[in-house]
Structures are given as C-alpha cells and as structure tokens.
Amino acid sequence: MKIKKIRFILIPLFCLNLLLISCNNTKTNTQETSSPVASPEKTSQPSQNGQQTNSFTEKVKFKLEDGNEAFSLKPKEDGAKLESPDGKEIARLNLDETGKIKIKDSKDKVLGYVVTKAGYWKLENADQTSELFILRLQEDGDYKLETGDNKEVYRIKKRDYGFEIESPSKQSLYKIKSKDGKISLRNSSDQTILSTKDQFLPIAVTCFSFDVLNQQQQAGLAYAVQLSQGK
C-alpha cells in the first residue's frame, strides 16, 4: 500500500515538472522570435532622375559686396522663384514629375527649360527645339560649359577653396570660394560679386558666373544643379 501511495504522489509531480519545463521553453522561444528588429534609418527620398526635392527648404539670399541683397531663390511646392530684393518675381522655376525645370518670367511666359541627366544639364530654348548650353561633369570632378554644338565656353576647375572658372584659353575669370559657411563669387581681381551664407552648393553658385546666360537662365541652371547635388 505504501508503494502505491508513493507512486500516486510521484506521478503527478513528474507530470507537473514536464508541464513547467514545456512552458518555460515556449516562453523562451516566444521571446527569441519576437525580438524587435531595428528599423532602417530614414533617408530623404529622391524624385525621378535622382533629384533631391528637399535640397534647400528656406529662401537663399545672394548679397552684393556691400551687404545689400542682390536677389534670392525662394523654394515653392512646384519649384522655386527668383525674386528681387523687394520681393518682386523675376522668374518662376517650375519642376515637373520628370525632373525637368520650366523657366518662366513674371508674366508666365516660357523662357526655356533645363533638363537634368546623369552627369550633365541641358539648357533648352522655349520650344525645346534647340540645345543652347550643356554643363557637363568631368571624370576628374571638374565641369565644362559648352554650347549646344559642343563648343567649349567655360572650364570650371575644382580647387581647394572651391572652383575656378576659366576661359577655353585658361584665362581666370571668376572664383567660387567657400570659407566659414560663406560661399562667394569673386572676379579675377578677387573682388566679391555675390555671396551667400544660406544652404546652397558652391557648384550651383558657379552658374551665376556664366555671363553668356541671362539671369533667368543662370537661376534655372543653378536650381537644377542644386537639386541633383551637382551630379
């Protein structure tokens, strides 16, 4: 009778131990499989053609040597505006879903287009029937501005201080210098023509040294270069 009584007690205890072991294993497996997975870092999403639509979010002011404002680029939902110091519209830069920029005047007249491709930017006429100028990125990090029929207009040489703009005959015309958060466009005598402390790339500022372009074209090209991060 004693043996039966002991067996009667041990069997339930053994089953209880098995049940506890099973529960612990289940809990461990659940914890392992439910471990949180690190979420990927958030990055800005490029639009088509690799353009960054959020490359600058505040108005970029360009100032003269005396500190007075020359003009500004103001970001808009559909692109940007080139404005005078008193806020008057000089040009509208409308960005479409393909990354093409339409340049218009204050009366909504189309003046031209900037088409961005990998490594170059094409400035086209209002009818898009002719390529006026092409800015090309070179393998060594330099740039060239050419006419639509591939004649060299400017060489944009990469320097320690920023960029130097040269004629085809290697005559120094302008320099883009970056120092202490300020980007300045200087002439051959090292006098400041334009400067900005706002969020803008030195290579984009370079476009305002292209004297063969009018101000609206300069702004359109600068905006396109800024959006594509100079690439």
Please provide a written account of the structure.
- This protein is an alpha+beta fold and about 230 residues long.
- The protein has a single domain, classed as Beta Barrel (Porin).
- It is built from three helices and 14 strands.
- A 14-stranded antiparallel β-sheet has the order 1-2-3-4-5-6-7-8-9-10-11-12-13-14.
- The longest helix has about 30 residues.
- The N and C termini lie far apart (about 90 Å).
- The N terminus is likely disordered.
What is the fold's blueprint, element by element?
Elements: H1 2-33, E1 60-63, E2 69-76, E3 79-83, E4 89-95, E5 101-104, E6 110-117, E7 120-124, E8 131-137, E9 143-147, E10 152-159, E11 162-166, E12 172-179, E13 182-187, E14 192-196, H2 202-206, H3 215-227
Antiparallel strand pairs: 1-2, 2-3, 3-4, 4-5, 5-6, 6-7, 7-8, 8-9, 9-10, 10-11, 11-12, 12-13, 13-14
Percent of residues in helical segments?
Answer: 10-25%
For the termini, the CA-CA separation is 92 Å
Q: Unreliable stretches, pLDDT < 50, 5 or more residues?
A: 1-11, 26-54
Number of strands: 14
What is the fold-level CATH name, i.e. the topology? Porin
Tell me what the CATH architecture is: Beta Barrel
Beta-strand residue percentage: 35-45%
The order of strands across the largest sheet is: 1-2-3-4-5-6-7-8-9-10-11-12-13-14
Question: Please, how many domains?
Answer: 1
Q: How does the overall form come out from the CA principal axes? A: globular
Rg calc = 31 Å
Average pLDDT works out at 83
SS-based class: alpha+beta
The number of distinct helices, counting runs of at least 4 residues, comes to: 3
Report the sheet with the most strands, covering strand number, pairing sense and barrel closure.
Answer: 14 strands, antiparallel
Please write the string of helix (H) and strand (E) elements. Answer: HEEEEEEEEEEEEEEHH
CATH class equals Mainly Beta
